[in-house]
Amino acid sequence: MAESKADTRERILDAAERLFMAHGYEGTSMRQITSEAGVNLAAINYHFGSKESLMQEVFRRRLDWLNEERLRVLDQFEAESDGKAIKPSLIVDGFFGTLLRIADDEERGGMTFLRLLGRTLTDPSEFIRTFLAHEYKAVVDRYKEALFRALPDVPKAEIVWRFHFMLGATSYAIAGTDSLRLVTDWQIEAEDATDRLDRLVPRLMSFLLGGLRAPLPQFSEAAVDSL
Amino acid sequence: MAESKADTRERILDAAERLFMAHGYEGTSMRQITSEAGVNLAAINYHFGSKESLMQEVFRRRLDWLNEERLRVLDQFEAESDGKAIKPSLIVDGFFGTLLRIADDEERGGMTFLRLLGRTLTDPSEFIRTFLAHEYKAVVDRYKEALFRALPDVPKAEIVWRFHFMLGATSYAIAGTDSLRLVTDWQIEAEDATDRLDRLVPRLMSFLLGGLRAPLPQFSEAAVDSL
DNA sequence: CTATGATTCAAACGAACGTATGAATCATAG
DNA sequence: CTATGATTCATACGTTCGTTTGAATCATAG
């Protein structure tokens, strides 16, 4: 019984994860989900209550581990650095590297979940954004604090902005991997898929760290005083 | 007559732009649009043919100017640099700065259009992505070429990736300005809105250039040969 | 074996969706 | 002023949406 229940629930979650990634929340119907999962239409409302709750559960299933792992990694860095600030490259890797390495980990959602997450960060639906914001807040706050300590000469506002920029570059890098690839449409040498994934992490890391450590911007004319 | 027609068309486009930005394409109904525009429900199908065509017209109205301006700026840089490569900072400003300065230009769509564009780059809807890709291709190709010449020591594949990352950071910076602000939730000093916008451009430019000029990534073990 | 609670199922609900229609209204040309 | 073509309008069409319902089926406990 418990197995059947868990089975149906997981089949629904898997199908929903894939379809929400491919067509978005509004663009995916419950009939598509239950059809792809091979379960009855009413199963979603029975097991999750509503489409919204299903969406939240799709994320919670993956984010619980991700956020715990991110905190665990940061704890470990802090324990190993006895009092001194952690290197920015380690902090960035703890947050973004931990996320990106899910790509190879089908158990944790793989590329499907990564793309879903990347796209959802800019999703227009109100309840999704508030849910994600709430889910992320604690972890982001800890990483921000770590960056403040690691870069004492950089104004905090600047660090927050750059964290924002890093989030954007990362989410777009994974969400757009085959959507807006058309835009850039690299006639570049066609690295095969695995290559591309293996190399994405170091490539993105270099970019993020370069941006994080870039020279501070010069603001024109007025309003320079507060710096 | 022509005025009334143009008026209705523009009222629809304005309302659609705002609502698509706020709720997404799938999340916005034709009844919401016509209601907000103060026109009859059938007006959209009469003037645009379908909801999809309306969406395309919403973008074309803004992108036509943006793409022309980007090409114009690049042409000018090339003319002024007689033969020599253009500085990366100018190229980046030509592409991303030109975009971001729309924020202050209500005539060209202002923040509403910027947010819509940022969100749409990762939109799940198939036809939207193909439309945008087609609309962007020519301009992106010219800017890529300019970057290739400006950074002859950086492998082309790397430049293409970093262009991708810059696109992501930018679109997220504008799309998420009040959505995922919750995530970062800066208790930082509350710069007022105009300040924030004035400073966003130089802040983002510093970040983008830092990322673009970052040290090249080191790939682990195998597959380093092709570099 | 029987009873009980959990799960699945087919079927239907009302609401909202994008689109189509034909008459009414409008502005202009002759 | 009248005729013509463009625009607006109220209304309806057929689908699809998320959700609900009550009976059928299943697994386990007594």
Broad structural category of chain A: mainly alpha
In helices, the fraction of residues of chain A equals: over 70%
| CATH homologous superfamily title of the largest domain in chain A | Tetracycline Repressor, domain 2
* Assembly context of the chains: homodimer
Shape call of chain A? elongated
The CATH architecture term of the largest domain in chain A is Orthogonal Bundle
Q: List SSEs of chain A in N-to-C order.
A: HHHHHHHHHH
* The top level CATH class name of the largest domain in chain A: Mainly Alpha
Radius of gyration of chain A: 20 Å
How big a fraction of the residues of chain A is strand? Answer: under 5%
* Number of strand elements of chain A: 0
CATH topology of the largest domain in chain A: Tetracycline Repressor, domain 2
Total count of domains of chain A = 2
Low-confidence stretches of chain A: 223-227
Average pLDDT figure of chain A: 88
* End-to-end separation of chain A: 63 Å
What does the secondary structure layout of this molecule look like, with pairings?
The structure is a homodimer of 227-residue chains.
Chain A: H1 2-23, H2 30-37, H3 43-48, H4 51-80, H5 88-100, H6 110-120, H7 126-150, H8 156-175, H9 181-184, H10 193-212
Helix pairs in contact in A: 1-2, 1-4, 1-6, 4-5, 4-7, 5-10, 6-8, 8-10
Chain A binds a DNA duplex (30 and 30 nucleotides) through α1 and α3.
